[in-house]
Amino acid sequence: MKLAVIAANGKTGQRVVETALAHDLDVTAIVRHENRSQATQVLQKGIFDLTADDLAPFDVVVDAFGVYDPERLDEHQTTLAHLTSILSGTTTRLYIVGGAGSLYVDDEMTIQLKDTPEFPAAYQPLAESMSRGLAVLRQAESVHWIYVSPAAEYDSEGPRTGQYAFAGDKLTTNATGQSYISYADYVDALLQEILHPSADQQRISIYGI
User: In this protein, which residues make up the domain named NAD(P)-binding (predicted)?
Assistant: First the structure.
């Protein structure tokens, strides 16, 4: 399996590269600047400069792109519009490291986490932008995309436990009522889905159990 990781220099991107290499996958890091991941194969290009030919060799593309600058939040939509455009009609599977804000908290699927009173106001613009990015994907009928949301608490310093489960569009909690996942467990689960795909053109979520 040939796998490319966009934004491989980021916290999640570096972990995806490391874990994919541990599974003996053929991994290429796609980065704008000097590669800081463990990948030895590197494509140094900005996401908007990627072409269909650039991504054609890959079975799987993991998009770990994220931006927090208030002036650039719309790139959560525009980058996905670009990627779905150049992957349209191909067999390449596109996995997006998504957000939790758009997960639903009610059985009727009408209220999203980002719209609840408890959701931190500081993260509202980011969550709104990422939610609009998911909407872009849902219009991409000719792309094999999978949007992968973490639990509400996504812990960069948490340990790898191997104790996780998959869910769908609804926020899911463990037996103690927590919605938590470490980066390490999220990436492990993501690689399991990549190696043994069960989803296509849908959002899945991962939470610790």
Answer: 8-191
